[in-house]
Amino acid sequence: VNTSEITMSDLRERLERESVRVSLAPNAQDRMFERGERLDRRRRAGTIAFGLALLVGLIVVVGTTLPRAQEPAAPSPTDALEGRWTATFTCEEMVRAIEHADVNPQLEKFWRRDQARVLGSDDPNDPCAADPPPLTYAFAFHDGRLQIFDAPTGSEGFDGRYELDGDVMKVSDEGNNIVGIYRVAYRLGGGTLSLDLLGRAGRDPFFVGAWESGEFRRT
Amino acid sequence: MAQRPLRIVPKPAEQAAPGRSVTPTFDEFFAAESEDLFRRLWLVTRNRHEAEEVMQDAFLSMFERWDRMDEVDDPKAYLYRTAFNAWKRRSRRASRALRLATFPGSHRDDVDAADARTVIGEALARLTPRQRAAVVLTELIGFSSEEAGEILGIRPVTARVLTSQARAAMREYLGDHDE
Question: Which candidate, B76, B36, B77, B37, places its Cα nearest to that of B54?
Answer without folding.
Answer: B37
